[in-house]
TrEMBL record:
Keyword Transferase: yes
InterPro entries given in the database record: Aminoglycoside_PTrfase (IPR002575), Kinase-like_dom_sf (IPR011009)
Stated name of the protein: Aminoglycoside phosphotransferase family protein
Species for this entry: Streptomyces cupreus
Keyword flag Transport: no
């Protein structure tokens, strides 16, 4: 079903849920927060309805929802742990949370984010928790690149960098277990944080679509990649890393160089970011912007200096 046809029905789901929870709903126009094929999100009052990606496994999503409900001090809890079918999608409803202001980088909650991830990594997974989908998401981005821009000159260094990675980082083999498999978010970035309730509430992680068990280093990989590409200032990276260590996060050692653990996941996230950027630019018929080009340039450097397979679980 197309996103355009899905939005009205999703809006009705959010509206019904909001009205059922309040005797007097402060009604206003519903707002579409995201309208993509892989995720459509609509807000009505203080309720958000999300249509999950097509072909989402209902059993796996149910476990992921139960995890969020069981960890309300870390993850924003859903309003129900049973997804509802809507056409060819599964729909869940959530309380609305105030997102990070991405236009004001000085207020980015790096310490809160790192602490939440460390706490998540320290919690035992529920029975039957599926693997986190970080590597699979990177692989899908590369597949999209190949389908969208197979002859693009920008794609060449991205694909070269991809093929320098070990098979587990390309989702071709299971992620090795070096004794640090934990509960992971699977797709962490600043857009996965909201304050709830209201604007001064505590920060919580959102979006459980990729949550599962795996190597916790993957959750640190995107900030690490941004730092390595020059897109995250050294002091912000230090704040994030210091807070994660202070919260006893298991992804990296308490002291010393973290890059023997972070290098390969960060490279995979760099490729994912570059592949997605090229695909989106090609589909929109626009040139790459400076930030997108900087990530592609990083892939070019990565392809020339393959990773040393010192990440312990890659041995």
């Amino acid at each position: 079903m197309t996103v355009i046809r899905l939005v009205p029905d999703l809006t009705r789901a959010a509206t019904v849920t909001a009205h059922a929870r309040r005797s007097a709903c402060p009604c206003g126009e519903a707002v579409t927060l995201a309208a993509r094929e892989d995720a459509t999100v609509v807000r009505h009052a203080d309720i958000v309805a999300k249509a999950h990606p097509p072909n989402t496994d209902p059993t796996e999503l149910t476990v992921r929802l139960a995890t969020a409900a069981a960890l309300p001090d870390i993850l924003l809890p859903p309003l129900t742990t049973s997804p509802a079918p809507l056409h060819d999608r599964l729909v869940t409803c959530w309380p609305y949370g105030t997102p990070v202001d991405l236009q004001d980088p000085d207020t980015a909650p790096w310490e809160a984010a790192a602490t939440l991830l460390a706490r998540l990594h320290g919690r035992p997974p529920l029975p039957h928790t599926p693997p986190m989908r970080g590597p699979a998401k990177a692989a899908r981005a590369v597949e999209r690149l190949r389908a969208t821009a197979p002859t693009s000159s920008a794609a060449t260094p991205v694909l070269r960098a991809w093929h320098t990675l070990p098979a587990w980082a390309r989702a071709e083999t299971p992620m090795p277990d070096n004794g640090t498999r934990t509960l992971c978010h699977g797709d962490f970035h600043l857009g996965q944080l909201v304050r709830h309730p209201a604007e001064q509430g505590p920060w919580r992680l959102i979006d459980v679509d990729d949550l599962g068990t795996g190597a916790p280093a993957w959750d640190l990989a995107r900030p690490a990649a941004w730092y390595a590409c020059g897109l995250l200032a050294p002091d912000e990276w230090t704040r994030f890393l210091t807070a994660y260590r202070a919260a006893a996060g298991p992804a990296i050692s308490a002291h010393g160089d973290p890059w023997h653990t972070l290098d390969i996941p960060a490279r995979a996230l760099t490729v994912q970011t570059a592949a997605t950027a090229i695909a989106k630019a090609t589909e929109a018929g626009r040139p790459l912007d400076d930030i997108e080009q900087s990530v592609i340039d990083a892939c070019d450097r990565m392809a020339s200096t393959p990773p040393e397979l010192t990440y312990e679980s890659a041995k």
